Amino acid sequence: MRELIKDAINDLNAALELRKLIIKKLNENKIKESNIIEIVDAVDDLSIEEIQKLGSNLRKFPMGCDLVEVVVGPCASSLTLNQFVENCILTDYMGFTIHACAYALADIGEKEGIPPLEVMKMVYENVDVPLDLDHFGQYGAMRFPKEITHCMGECYYKGPPYKGCPRKRIHKRLIDKEKEYAHEFEDWIKLASTVCINVVEEQGGEEHAAPLEEMAVVAKTAKKYGKGLEGIFHVGDGYDDLITGLKSCIDFDVDVLVVEGAPFNRAKDRLKAFAKAIGVSRILVKGGVVATNGAYEDECRIGLRSGLNVIISGFSGNHHGYMCGYSPGTAKRGNFGLPRVMRIIKEEIKNMDVTLVSRHDLIAIARSSKFLGNVVYPETLGGMFIGDAHWVAIKNSKLHDKVGIRKTLEDVENEYNGEKLGFLGGRYIAWGIAKKLMPEEVYVSDANKWVEEATVKILNEVGINAYKCNGNDEEVVKNADKTYICSMIPEIILKIKNKVEAESLM
Question: In terms of domains, do 436 and 341 share one?
């Protein structure tokens, strides 16, 4: 494992083999604490520059997810219902996933005299983007006293190291209020696309999170309804705490790993510890997506350079508004974090081969997911997942239900008569068609040399005679009996159709 990790710094094929090895172990529930320790030690031995190269390689298709996304918290207990819904509508228009803090929705509902679930339903009715549910326990929406819901964020403002809440008030719960609406528990999860669980209690943060036994109830129900599962843990001391957090998340079979730094990063070398936490998460994450829900500006920047996919931010009043992107002395309640996080991402990814997710991209994933049906994550081809956790989130959103496509994978299967196939585009649509039809011969072209190479490698490994065409679409059409444009983005489809004769799927 150590040698493979070292090789993956400079070799994408080694990175692919590393991910295949980890995915196999994850699917067989064979990741042990000793494996995690070995990986943490191996990454710990690397320089910060090597960690950044490793994480960036593992974010590339198909080892990880080469999209960078902002997830937005539009809610706060201090908002009116109208303000909250309007924040959600704006977030939806921008195409960002909504991070729904259940306690805040419940507080807003209480002020309006309506049950907590009715507020969640109102969000669902007004947006199409995925809904990410957090602060959710075994009775449903968690409830906290006002000194927590209106916290000014002293721990983030003062900066590390974290020594417990400065006002000694975490993690008080109003359990009787929660139990009053316990009958709503499963209905919340049915409306959500993804659900967060927090494992920091296992890292020694008993005062900061719900018991693991409670998180197990939430995790089991999320899995029952096919929702994506996110595991939140602290950087902590950067070693023992990191290992404990990762092990707890893997034991819960989470799809997304969420790393919290800032005051919860107590390591001597904060930036290397944060980069290491992201890099190790990139190796171990099941669904290919690594996020942060709390990181100072320098951590956000080093995280993006080390393979980070998602930064959770928020509107003014929402605690995520100050938890990401701000620094000690400026991180405080009242900040509207989204503009700052967008600037940080824009500055950091300009020279990276990644895309900042927009509504345009979400629609493309939704169309692709709808076309492929049940042949997406966590389904595999050649030991690699077809898609990632983004696809689970999209599939559980209204956007997925609303988009239109011209054909389904079943239609393609029904019209297939054993022809040699051509794929213009080497990503997951091509993988899904190949998995369903298992053609004897396939020709592949993609504008991205590595995407084409990886797809051909995977298809060859499952017994399909696949051939690279070095980005030459004309070469594919010439050799194949039937050629499909494996994209759901209209501009790309039109560009290809103006150049060659091939069939689009939307």
Answer: no
